Amino acid sequence: MAIVQRLMIAGTVTILFMFSSGSVAGQAPSAPQSQPIPVSSSASSRISSRVEPHSEQAYSLPPDKLAQAVALNKIRVTLDIAGSLWSLLVLFWLLASGTATRLDAWTAERLKRRWVQGLAFFAILIVFLSAAGLPVDAIGHAASLRYGISVQSWASWFGDQGKGMAVSLVMGVPIALFFNWIVRKSPLRYWVWLWVISLPLIVLSVFVAPLIIDPLFNKFEPLGKTHPVLVTRLEALVARTGTSVPPERMFLMKASEKSNGINAYVTGIGSSKRFVMWDTTTDRMPDDEIVFIFGHESGHYVLNHIPKMLAGMMGGLFFVFWGSAKLAQAIVRRFGERWKVVGVGSRAGFLTLFFALSIAGFVLTPVGNTFSRHFEHEADVYGQEAIHGLVADPQKTAVSSFNHLGEAWLDDPNPNAFVEFWSYSHPSVQNRAKFAEQYNPWVNGGHGKFLEK
Fold first, then answer.
1. Set 104, 137, 214, 297: catalytic member
2. Where do the structural domains in the chain lie, given as residue ranges?
């Protein structure tokens, strides 16, 4: 997962108070590319050490895998849409059925202190919402097993779900309780305070994820322990790009214990920043392509995508919180008496704000993904420029890398344009490979967009 995608998830997690364990970054390995749901990938066969396009397209698949990719893409799109709508429907039911109000009354009857009532209310709510999301997640895991990329047993998978729920409880309950207190104490301007508090929470979640959360779900070891030659090559790229990723911050993740997918990414911020390579990637991709991927991820830092994304996110969240507050208040005015919700400041009423934020998050999905695709494209350009002079053929290396990734995760070579616009956080593999194939700014003594040499 690229750092930009990690940041988007962190923002979503913060906004939605981590009410769902599936929102916790750092769970089971997931697809690094553009699909909305990291369900599955190629059948059990290993990808070759070098992938050439099978047609005139920059990225293509043989007939058997193409059929799998098309079928899998339908599953991913269906689960993406169904999962979002199901989450909204569950929240609506909690409010419209009076379940949220009855839960609030139940905790008030049995517990004396208000803050303890709040802890119990939000803890029960998180467990319920996490359980409600399990069917969609389970279908995704079943598809992942069927298509051959996941090797994670159901017992291990449920274990990860339990860990995710625990993380959601530890982090989400205090945040929800604090946000609810702010709404109650400042009923007119609470949305401003929530907006102000969101930025440090987002940054904090990105900082702690690789240190605390990720190790709960996967095993890590120093990359240099088993791949010293690769580390030396990555250090050469670090020197070329001026990034600050010393060897002690390069790690190998034991993804093969759960997945047959391939991936590499940079995560964290500040002193927690690190480069992570899946062991499946080192086993099946040439070092040249790994260096290209590292160059791509380094580009996110060199091109200041993190502060840019933070600035854009905070600007957008200002209007999201404002609009969601207006919508929540309108919902209470229209349905409050019927649903027995006395106001947004009550615990049950606070769920209307969460419902409004969820609607906003769904509607604005393509906006965030549009920005993400732009940054990912810039990182692709930077990565290809960064390996110039370090590999024999930057164009061929980049194209082969995208073909490896596309074949491993069964990316559809010709995705629906609207689906790509709405759901893809990265450009489609076809578009990425096509650009890489044609991008050669060094012809006739030229220079790159970001690097002179």
1. 297
2. 1-41+60-433
